[in-house]
Amino acid sequence: MNVNSCRRGPSRVGIGLILGVGLLAWAVGPAVAAPIDPGFDYFVTPASVGAEVDLSSAGLGIIPLEGVPLPNTVGGLDTIVARKMPGPPEGNMNQIEIELVALHLTSVSPPAGLADLHITIDAGDRFFTNLMPQPDGTGAGPSPFNLPVPIPVPPSTGKMEIMHDPPGAGHMGAMFRACFGDAAGCDGTGPQFGQGLGMPNSGIFANAIFVVPGGDPANPADRIQGLAAPPIVLASNGKFVHSPVFGGGGVQIGQITHVGPHPPDPGGGYMPEPTSFALVMLASIGLGLLRRRLG
């Protein structure tokens, strides 16, 4: 099996997060100062260049995937990652904790006409207080996304190492390398800025929900099967640019590349993003149970 994943990032689509009346996305532009504060990184997965899950071994071929816009957001964003700690001062380097806050992807069409597949993560209750963002993870809820997550799963945590540009470098931003997973999957991946990125008990933990074609994953009557996936290791590296985009902590991702055994297709000018690599294991496990149930 293999998966091909391409994502648009905020620098391409000019998106911002809107969480209630009066909170508007800031226009992207150069920042006066250059701190890297706790903040969110946003992603969009269009169907035209979205993720693909290869289920040929299950007799279902390649299943295209696309993002489902998260509630209370604009620009069609379907994935949010939190940087929970401040980045280093200019000219310095440090490691920070990151967490996948929200994710919702779905199959573009029902695999073999059997069911729609939805992949969900929602930790928004810990990153928002009512509708106010708390990127350090100190939120008191409720989640502004309220995604269906029928199976309890651990937090999807990881680490990011940031190398901030030195003073006088034009405030262009910073380079980073990031990973969700343990030392076996994270250490030794990407540019070697410093120490390893592995964290015990970390990784991507998601729900895989199969529903009747056109069904609502939030409606138990439409669900065929709900599964908790095993942890998935995901690694990437790229660059930040300084920007006052709302909730971004003074930066936004300007370039990101997946690190793994199957290089993504960079065609079309979209930035590769690794999140949907997890779907290989999620979908293959889920469809096996689904076919036994419906067959």
Q: How would you portray this structure in words?
A:
Strand 3 and strand 4 (61-67) form a beta hairpin. Strands 1, 2, 3, 4, 5, 6, 7, 10, 11, 12, 13, 14 and 15 form a 13-stranded antiparallel sheet that branches. This protein has a two-stranded antiparallel ribbon with strand order 8-9. The protein is built from three helices and 15 strands. The chain is mainly beta.
Helix content: under 10%
**Rounded average pLDDT:** 73
Count of β-strands: 15
Largest sheet: 13 strands, antiparallel
Radius of gyration: 18 Å
What is the ordering of alpha helices and beta strands? EHEEEEEEEEEEHEEEEH
Note the beta-strand portion: 25-35%
Query: Could you give the distance between the termini?
Result: 23 Å
Domains, number:
1
Q: Would you tell me the structural class of the helices and strands?
A: mainly beta
Note the overall shape.
Answer: globular
How many H/I helices? 3
User: Which spans have pLDDT < 50 for at least 5 consecutive residues?
Assistant: 1-32, 261-295
Quaternary structure of the protein? single chain
Topology:
Blueprint: E1 3-4, H1 10-13, E2 39-43, E3 52-55, E4 61-67, E5 79-83, E6 93-107, E7 116-122, E8 128-129, E9 132-133, E10 157-164, E11 174-180, H2 183-186, E12 207-211, E13 223-228, E14 234-242, E15 251-258, H3 279-294
Antiparallel strand pairs: 1-3, 2-5, 3-4, 4-6, 5-6, 6-7, 6-10, 7-12, 8-9, 10-11, 11-14, 12-13, 14-15
